[in-house]
Amino acid sequence: MTDLTQLQQQAETELAASQDDAALEAWRIKYISRKGLIPAAVKQIGALPPEERAAYGQAVNRLKQGVQAAFEVRQQAVKEASLQAELTAEGIDVTLPGRRPQLGRLHPISRTLRQIYDIFGSMGFQIYTARDVETDETNFQLLNFPKGHPAREMQDTFHTTVPDVLLRTHTSPGQIHAMRDYHPEPIRVILPGKCYRYEQVTARSEMMFYQVEGLAVGHSITFADLKGTLHAFANQLFGEGRQLRFRCSHFPFTEPSAEVDIDCILCGGKGCRVCKYSGWLEILGCGMVHPTVLRNGGYDPDIYSGYAFGMGPERISMLLHGIDDIRYFYANDARFLPQFA
Ligand code: DAH
After folding, report:
1. Residue 269 C-alpha to ligand 1 middle, in angstroms?
2. What CATH superfamily is the domain 108-340?
3. Residue 157 class from Cβ within 10 Å (0-12 exposed, 13-18 middle, 19+ buried)?
């Protein structure tokens, strides 16, 4: 006759020592499967004298149930322990900070444009957006560059398959559109936008670049207004105390015309590599709107006068940030662009 107490102790001890699924399965087969020791003990009831059967039956049933319950508890514990071991082995470190998504930011030229808008906006200029695709007439003829005019050679042009339709080479044709729109009201606008030239790309010139044109038309506007406006602009953008130098120049659509330099923001005018030891940096072209251009825009030059200017934001951004190659702006190099937060 099986000693039930001993069987129970032995089953419990071995169960407690079973650390994994394989050991548990071996234990299950040994003790509680159909051919296991416990069903065998149950079967022994039949071999007992009738008066002992009831007590033995109760004891063996209690043993069977107790051991079955202990097996289930142990099974659960082994499962949890193995899950825990797996997690530790895979080394998931929940304290590691998450990866920040990359945030986009403004392109350096957009930033420079916004600085320019802010300054002229504070002086009462509106932003006038003109088209990128122009005609030979608006890009050149109405601005006093007749066909064959040598000044056209400075602006090698992307033509389209449609005769006389081209990509604007400068923002100046916007002057014609603005004048025709505003006439006969006075005008104070800046005209920002992209321009296109069919040119060799170098450190100093791109095929596509921005310009910001300025135009003021009204009564009694003089060169002094132009000088005062540009002086205020340069002082706000490049810092107080900037000096401006107006050099005689020529543009077909202005008369007189000038190019404007500021004293070098790097060496303060002493002369350095950036200003090519001249002490001056060119920042824009300007002049009084040519009478023919005023007339082409619908304004009588005997009654109205105006000034215009045009600048390149890439060049201005290069000066402000010490960038020495214009090609960086549109090469989409993720090492360059994020430097301008
Ligand atoms: N359109 C000229 C260019 O692209 C720049 C310019 C010069 C614009 C003088 C002006 C100006 O309005 O007055 O070279």
Report:
1. 25
2. Bira Bifunctional Protein; Domain 2 (3.30.930.10)
3. middle
